Amino acid sequence: MGDLHYSYYEAAPLPANRGGSVSDSPIDGWSLLTEKVARNALHNSRARYDAPKCDEDTRVEVTSELMEWIEDRNVPQRLLCMTGAAGSGKSCLQQTAAEKCAGSDILAASFFLSAADPTRNTIDPVIPTIAYQLGRANATLKFLIKIAIEKDPLIFDQSLEAQTTALIVRPVEDLRCMGVDLSSLSYVILIDGLDEGRGEDRQAELLTAIRRCLLIGNLPFRIFITSRPEWAIHSALQPGGHLRDMAYHIQLSDKYDATADMRRYLRRRFEDIGLRINNPNWFSKNDVETLVQAGSGQFIYVATVYKYISERRASPAARLNTVLTWTPHAGQVAKPFEVLDRLYHSILLAAKDTYEAVDTHHGRNFLLLFRVHHINANGFMLVGSSPKYSADLLSRLLCLEPQAEEALISDLRSLVALETDDVGNLNLRLYHKSFSDFLQEPSRAKDLFIPKSRVYTHVAKCAMQRIIECPLDFDSRA
Length: 478
Description:
The protein is of the alpha/beta class. It has helices spanning 2-11, 29-35, 60-71, 90-103, 126-136, 139-151, 160-177, 200-214, 231-237, 252-255, 259-277, 285-294, 299-309, 316-325, 338-356, 366-378, 391-397, 404-409, 433-440, 442-445, 452-469; strands at residues 79-83, 107-112, 188-192, 222-227, 247-251, 416-420, 426-430. The chain starts with a helix and ends in a 9-residue tail after the last helix.
């Protein structure tokens, strides 16, 4: 395909010069572009070798829905957004889609963000990396992108919208002007982990650039973005959001129950361990079921457990027993949930810093307020009862402004949700049981731990403050 386009370019006239000179340019535009590429972000990069993906008989329903949307180019929405709780399997599904699309020769570009990798933890390289992949697949498009950079070598310091226009939109439109059928190009663009790119404003800017530049006109691309439901994508997809009517939205944690797939995943891998150690009976069906139920439908839990148990230099049976019976105690060495704890710690710390940076939240302790809501979700333990208050009522009890609970969890949407029950009460829901365990255990939460005694003391003080502010009038008459 690349040779065909290159031959066509040799015979076809170039589009009219949009300004600037490309002759005698001292700059090699393509070389400058490659310097801006995040190599580790490609779906098949060496840094992501053996990246997690779905087994053939797991996540079948959601994978089918994804591929049907990707392959049906008559579906009006050209943007698919998949949001889901932390650890719900979004990246595995994205990797699976990438490999299927690459196998069908329809993958135009991919970008996998990662907060842990400094080469791909910002939004900056996303557009250059996509442009690089588009040009790599088509010699004519490569030349057009190259001359665009040579006309304006500072394009990479401009807005994402300007970059998208100069490096993707105009070169593709010029390709059409040269007579190339754009439907013959690979057309799927995948962006995984939008929330892992530093800066909410930059995440929002990328979504805006995609809407304004790639979702209008007759460009051939279909774009699939995955993200935790954090502010940038949550606000864009909610009623009134600028992507609400333009995107096909899959809410992974709400729509699909992964329990059966988690069970198959663990059983198959435990059977593989049995073959390795020549002992097929080293685990029981009840062991698998216990782990699956502890996972609360989130794939990251069973994946973390398997990674811990499968350590080659240790006894899998002993490590399985450690996970099943693990309780914190002084001198505890085993850390079966270390990967999960790092995830929870990073999300909770980022939410704390963001919340407390707001001037109207000055003097508030985010961790204490959230822990109050967490304990309330299961009911306060009082003598003879376990009262549980609606989240909005609890905010008033804590002397906070209306809808304070929404602001409190706005950066924790990948771990919790506020849901309205049948009688209209607003309740906090935790996606992960293991997150609740993390919050309650000082050896896991570490510097983010808030003891129950401090929570009860704070609630009591707030209640007393309410009584002082609103004294009862015992002298009043009905």
